């Protein structure tokens, strides 16, 4: 056991913290809960992060870095820019697979909106997602997936707003899965702009 803490990196701890938040919410999260999740003692987390707030701030910063890295990965995995956009949208909210986990992560967002330090990281996530969505839409226009003249910047703002709203409405009506809802709503927004003369990747 003496060497185990050194074998668990911060990223693994932060992933565990996100999972715990999904189960119990940020208010009920404790260092002890997260430590048990990864097989450490709470003191190790105190040494690394200083406090529960320090851990949550590290998670917020980690989320911003993830938001920067995700677009490049999903783009590599799909031939179509629009398929990559669908993957970006669904994977960015993959941890919110149930209405309960959605509600618990939404509670974390409430902290982001009221605490300046957390807001800085939440805004970074929001801006990174917006840039990625706009870039994929612009690429889709260039590739002919979307009609020539489509305003990628304006459409990106609409897509981002729809994604946020789709999560909340899904958590309320609980019809289907969140991924299904996200795909459906994004497809609806994009539908008037599609270039129907070309084939698109289905997966």
UniProtKB/TrEMBL annotation:
InterPro entries: Homeodomain-like_sf (IPR009057), HTH-type_TetR-like_transc_reg (IPR050109), HTH_TetR (IPR001647), Tet_transcr_reg_TetR-rel_C_sf (IPR036271), TetR_C (IPR011075)
Keyword Ubl conjugation: no
Keywords: DNA-binding, Transcription, Transcription regulation
Annotated HTH tetR-type domain residues: 7-67
Residue stretches in coiled coil: none
Recorded superkingdom: Bacteria
Keyword Transcription regulation: yes
Residues within the DNA-binding region(s): 30-49
Name this protein carries in UniProt: TetR/AcrR family transcriptional regulator
Species name: Microtetraspora glauca
Lineage of the organism: Bacteria, Bacillati, Actinomycetota, Actinomycetes, Streptosporangiales
């Amino acid at each position: 056991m003496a060497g185990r803490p050194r074998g668990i990196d911060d990223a693994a701890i932060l992933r565990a913290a996100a999972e715990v938040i999904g189960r119990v919410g940020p208010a009920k999260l404790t260092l002890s809960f997260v430590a048990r999740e990864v097989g450490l003692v709470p003191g190790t987390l105190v040494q690394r992060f200083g406090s529960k707030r320090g851990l949550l701030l590290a998670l917020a910063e980690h989320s911003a870095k993830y938001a920067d890295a995700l677009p490049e990965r999903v783009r590599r995995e799909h031939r179509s820019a629009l398929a990559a956009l669908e993957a970006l949208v669904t994977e960015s909210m993959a941890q919110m697979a149930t209405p309960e986990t959605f509600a618990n992560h939404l509670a974390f967002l409430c902290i982001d909106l009221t605490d300046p330090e957390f807001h800085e990281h939440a805004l970074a996530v929001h801006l990174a997602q917006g840039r990625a969505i706009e870039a994929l839409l612009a690429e889709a226009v260039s590739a002919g997936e979307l009609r020539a003249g489509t305003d990628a910047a304006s459409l990106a703002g609409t897509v981002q707003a729809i994604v946020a709203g789709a999560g909340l409405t899904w958590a309320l009506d609980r019809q289907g899965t969140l991924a299904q809802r996200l795909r459906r709503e994004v497809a609806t927004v994009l539908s008037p702009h599609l270039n129907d003369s070309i084939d698109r990747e289905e997966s």
